[in-house]
Design a protein that fits this description.
This protein is mostly beta strands. The protein has three helices and 22 strands. About 5% of the residues lie in helices and about 35% in strands.
């Protein structure tokens, strides 16, 4: 335990020495804004939808038009190898229209589109670079352009623009919206933007990604006393400094162990076997190899429970036993079998059922037999 707390202290000291700089920030709460709108129709602040505060910035698609929202002044990222653009938005525009982001490092003389190469969000970039209502389907309801968005529709996006904007002294960002079918908005509400931010740092800002691999122990684990091997795929652009698993039994003191890199990006560690009726909490903590020492955690819990499983035989298990009535029609037959609790004589979870199928003594052939089972309240009978 002392080693674990010492390790946490070392992590804290490492992180405390790290700094990042916000080189651009706009929440559209109070003008003048850090962005200048151009094109037609014009961008404007609205109060009906917002990610934070009470305002966002919005524009609709004009017929055959392209509109821009561009940083008014250039900003510098000099001395920083990692640059990240983030913003919140609702892009309720037709699926033929496009909304995208461009970056300039020469004060706006030339521009470069951001694509899937830079994208770190969870939406779909249309044609590899653009947003529209199809980017979050069904959340943004792309098939019904006239449906008005609500504040539950906001999505937060992140782009790693380091390959374009790192160590640059004359950077600008612009948001572009373009009509793709010459019909204008088509009744769609438009593109809403809020909380635009560009952060720069000496190293990456993105924490590792943790994905559990099967078997995933969570909720109730039946008839398995352990040990429990926890496996996960863990990745990070700068590599991993430390991957550790921490667990506790029945809310007691935490224990921990380094996870072993078994192959590629796969890591695993084992929780010792436990008695049944035990509550186990576990957390995977990954810290990347950047100077920022970004931290990611993933936590689960499970309860070990034992169910007594028995083999139960109903009837004699031979073809001489039958349950009537049995109905036939054009060489097909169907029937139903209802067993009472006293016949089954078992309390608990029935995990599998086996039927005996006999073709004798009447030389009938059983083909394409389908058995349907269901749980039905006793009172229905």
């Amino acid at each position: 335990m002392k080693k674990y707390f010492l390790l946490l202290l070392m992590f804290a000291l490492a992180i405390s020495g790290y700094s990042q700089t916000v080189v651009l920030s706009e929440d559209f709460e109070t003008p003048p804004y850090a962005f200048t709108p151009t094109g037609s129709p014009t961008w404007s602040a609205v109060t009906n939808l917002y990610y934070e505060g009470t305002h966002s910035y919005r524009n609709t698609v004009g017929a055959g038009a392209t509109s821009y929202l561009t940083t008014t002044n250039s900003f510098s990222t000099t001395g920083n190898a990692y640059v990240e653009l983030s913003f919140a938005h609702i892009c309720k525009i037709e699926v033929a229209d496009t909304a995208y982001i461009e970056v300039s490092v020469d004060g706006g003389a030339t521009w470069q589109k951001l694509t899937t190469t830079h994208y770190e969000g969870s939406g779909s970039l249309i044609e590899g670079y653009a947003f529209n209502a199809l980017s979050y389907n069904p959340d943004w309801q792309p098939l019904t352009p006239s449906v008005a968005p609500t504040n539950t529709w906001w999505k937060v996006e992140t782009f790693n623009i380091s390959s374009i904007a790192a160590n640059q002294s004359d950077v600008k960002v612009r948001f572009v919206m373009k009509d793709g079918n010459a019909t204008g908005s088509g009744g769609a509400a438009g593109w809403y933007l809020d909380d635009i931010k560009v952060q720069a740092a000496a190293s990456e800002l993105t924490p590792p990604t943790i994905t559990l691999l099967s078997p995933i122990y969570q909720d109730t684990v039946l008839n398995n006393p352990g040990p429990y091997t926890i496996k996960a795929t863990i990745t990070d652009a700068s590599g991993l400094q430390t991957v550790r698993m921490i667990w506790s039994i029945n809310g007691g003191a935490a224990d921990s162990v380094n996870m072993t890199n078994t192959s590629g990006s796969t890591y695993e560690a084992t929780i010792p076997a436990q008695a049944y009726n035990t509550h186990i909490d576990y957390t995977i903590k990954a810290i990347d190899n950047s100077s920022a020492h970004n931290v990611a955690t993933l936590s689960k819990w499970f309860f070990t429970k034992r169910l007594l499983l028995h083999d139960i035989t109903i009837g004699t298990g031979t073809s001489t036993t039958s349950y009537l009535p049995l109905y036939g029609y054009n060489d097909y037959s169907y029937g139903g079998m209802i067993y009472t609790a006293s016949e089954i004589n078992y309390t608990g979870l029935i995990k599998k059922v086996q039927f005996y199928v006999g073709n004798t003594p009447n030389n009938y052939t059983t083909n394409n037999q389908i058995i349907y089972m269901g749980e039905v309240p006793y009172t229905e009978f």
